[in-house]
Amino acid sequence: MADGTGNGGATGQQLGIRVADERDVGALARLRRAWLEERTGHPVEDPGFEAAFAQWWRVELPRRTFWLAEIGSPRSGYTAIGSINVLEIVHMPRPGARGGRIGHVGNAFVLASFADRGVPGALLTAVVEHARTRRYRRLLLAPTAGSAPFYRRAGFVPAGDGFLVLEPEPAGTTR
């Protein structure tokens, strides 16, 4: 692994966080499926999901960075146990001011059996370092009620309710 960030204790397995690439699309899709199945408490049948995920990955890759948390060893191999991504939003410059970038943190997930082993913090550390390197003005996220305390402990503060949303109806429908 490119970035060992800890160890798995007596098992000799090491935790690593690295930027995901094309070889990781299947692992990321499996984690996304696991995220839903952990929340619903049952398997979700969708035979086309992995192909749809791979297509989404290819569309999003130019503007997103994905990280993968893995545990294992060179001898035994590695298993994906968590992921996170950041959508880079580049603001249009205006006269007298530079544009700037922000990052929207999304889809953070760690398998429940690893959630209390420092994996979420290791993933978030990678994201914050990326934001510093890319000189983002800020990182934004929309935490769940359960994850908000974790992000607050990491230094995130409330951003207010200044968001508007429009849910357009499909073309050809009227209200």
UniProtKB/TrEMBL annotation:
Keywords: Acyltransferase, Transferase. It holds the Pfam family Acetyltransf_1. Signal peptide: none annotated. GO terms for molecular function: acyltransferase activity, transferring groups other than amino-acyl groups. Residues 15-175 form the N-acetyltransferase domain. This is Acetyltransferase (GNAT) family protein.
